[in-house]
């Protein structure tokens, strides 16, 4: 038909050999064939027993997005050899870094043994910082495809994701990917799966997602092994809202899994969480582009547009129902809790309005970010943002720059500490607890009865030849070993209790350096633990600079204090008076460095004479310096704070 289109243009004398006309007609024909073709299917007529809802879970860079691309091609959702990779990774940062940040859903249609099956795929992130994306995605699934690299084998996030799916009682389809690689060893990986998860070797599929080898077997295993959703289409409408994002023209769009009943355009729906009522304006299936439809039925996953004003109204884990038929709320899931906090300030206060607008828009699409207004005498008006982890912070910062052209200053990340305060005349009750994530707000040590710091359970999988260096690194970071398990003859899995503040900055980089990149790391929250925490302050000529304060463990206060004063000595510009840079903790000076003052040679004009003249001029200069030091205010340039506070 495309050749016919070109011939028609020639016969009518309109072929001027300009590609623009030919391409326009080709697009028209493709669009016509897509909309009027005989393959259109009424999705509402697909019975529940032919619906499969599943996710792909794996460690970072084990091929989740590549397998998702092959599934899209194999089921006809996209054309083969279209030249596009990572179809479901829509953000620029995802394509640049080669990672999945935001879980994406797509509905696939596949014909198996003469019947049409609806496969709802959710591609999930693999990095530990986005484990909440994985958790809420699994709430809408009945099974998962557990993907493992045939070269790298089982990694730390593989273990975490397996037990996450296992705890939700989901069917697990084990798949070994990248069997086409030169150093691939599927047999070794199969033994690891048997040792760690008790998965039988004959249940494991072997594929190459890049080359498309074995993809058909994966689809058939999904259909045969994963059960259909346990739903009831005859009951009143009830759905689980498990994801949302913001569209500037349509408001908040909600991705829902329909548990019971059906929903049509024009229906009235209500939120169990906010009790607000909305009118359904649009419904769509993601294939992967939005495919508008008029009705969704139980068992399906679809997109609902109902003029919600903000993503805050689309509460993740909420139950949506018809207000005329009240229902019991569905079991939701734990909301994501920020683990890492950082201050965000504009490079210049003239950019404050633009940065505020960028943060507000980006926070609408990322419900895991918490935003609080903050201010600093050194950096001006800003915000204190909470993130799920360090990578989440880096991705958010990169998106601010790429998508909105902002230039933020990010302070060093910190965590939230819990403090139990002593009773005083204003608070007669003992045991009052407060939470602090900003060192400048840390109270005086005389008011604190007990301090607690957040802990995590870290899982490290490494070749055994790097074991000594990794154990030393964990001990240096105040880790306590829980267990050590041999996966096979070459690899060991370690579990450590670690303080969160010790791993958020450079632990992962140090681990990769020690292990030459072969070790993998994953962690999960483990509550709070009592700890000896102190506030490390910085004094400039006896004056406290709160912006340079830090919360540290008492055993590391002197080391960090010494490092801070040496760094400040190098970057603080010399002034007319001597500057004493001191690190102080609980009223005790731990480290000190002096920045010498500028000194004019007042004896340069002397050409001889009595030595008393020279001594008199030097004494006058010393007296002037002393007087100046008593009244001088040390003015630090903005760049100094940026150099110290930036991560």
TrEMBL record:
<dbReference type="GO" id="GO:0097177">
    <property type="term" value="F:mitochondrial ribosome binding"/>
</dbReference>
<feature type="binding site">
    <location>
        <begin position="177"/>
        <end position="180"/>
    </location>
    <ligand>
        <name>GTP</name>
    </ligand>
</feature>
<dbReference type="InterPro" id="IPR031157">
    <property type="entry name" value="G_TR_CS"/>
</dbReference>
<keyword id="KW-0547">Nucleotide-binding</keyword>
<dbReference type="GO" id="GO:0045727">
    <property type="term" value="P:positive regulation of translation"/>
</dbReference>
<protein>
    <recommendedName>
        <fullName>Translation factor GUF1 homolog, mitochondrial</fullName>
        <ecNumber>3.6.5.n1</ecNumber>
    </recommendedName>
</protein>
<feature type="binding site">
    <location>
        <begin position="58"/>
        <end position="65"/>
    </location>
    <ligand>
        <name>GTP</name>
    </ligand>
</feature>
<dbReference type="InterPro" id="IPR027417">
    <property type="entry name" value="P-loop_NTPase"/>
</dbReference>
<comment type="function">
    <text>Promotes mitochondrial protein synthesis. May act as a fidelity factor of the translation reaction, by catalyzing a one-codon backward translocation of tRNAs on improperly translocated ribosomes. Binds to mitochondrial ribosomes in a GTP-dependent manner.</text>
</comment>
<comment type="similarity">
    <text>Belongs to the GTP-binding elongation factor family. LepA subfamily.</text>
</comment>
<keyword id="KW-0472">Membrane</keyword>
<dbReference type="InterPro" id="IPR006297">
    <property type="entry name" value="EF-4"/>
</dbReference>
<dbReference type="InterPro" id="IPR035647">
    <property type="entry name" value="EFG_III/V"/>
</dbReference>
<dbReference type="InterPro" id="IPR035654">
    <property type="entry name" value="LepA_IV"/>
</dbReference>
<dbReference type="InterPro" id="IPR013842">
    <property type="entry name" value="LepA_CTD"/>
</dbReference>
<dbReference type="GO" id="GO:0003924">
    <property type="term" value="F:GTPase activity"/>
</dbReference>
<dbReference type="GO" id="GO:0005743">
    <property type="term" value="C:mitochondrial inner membrane"/>
</dbReference>
<dbReference type="GO" id="GO:0005759">
    <property type="term" value="C:mitochondrial matrix"/>
</dbReference>
<dbReference type="InterPro" id="IPR005225">
    <property type="entry name" value="Small_GTP-bd"/>
</dbReference>
<dbReference type="GO" id="GO:0005525">
    <property type="term" value="F:GTP binding"/>
</dbReference>
<dbReference type="Pfam" id="PF00009">
    <property type="entry name" value="GTP_EFTU"/>
</dbReference>
<dbReference type="InterPro" id="IPR000640">
    <property type="entry name" value="EFG_V-like"/>
</dbReference>
<keyword id="KW-0378">Hydrolase</keyword>
<feature type="domain" description="Tr-type G">
    <location>
        <begin position="49"/>
        <end position="230"/>
    </location>
</feature>
<dbReference type="GO" id="GO:0006412">
    <property type="term" value="P:translation"/>
</dbReference>
<dbReference type="InterPro" id="IPR038363">
    <property type="entry name" value="LepA_C_sf"/>
</dbReference>
<feature type="binding site">
    <location>
        <begin position="123"/>
        <end position="127"/>
    </location>
    <ligand>
        <name>GTP</name>
    </ligand>
</feature>
<dbReference type="Pfam" id="PF00679">
    <property type="entry name" value="EFG_C"/>
</dbReference>
<keyword id="KW-0999">Mitochondrion inner membrane</keyword>
<dbReference type="Pfam" id="PF06421">
    <property type="entry name" value="LepA_C"/>
</dbReference>
<keyword id="KW-0342">GTP-binding</keyword>
<comment type="similarity">
    <text>Belongs to the TRAFAC class translation factor GTPase superfamily. Classic translation factor GTPase family. LepA subfamily.</text>
</comment>
<dbReference type="InterPro" id="IPR000795">
    <property type="entry name" value="T_Tr_GTP-bd_dom"/>
</dbReference>
<keyword id="KW-0496">Mitochondrion</keyword>
<keyword id="KW-0648">Protein biosynthesis</keyword>
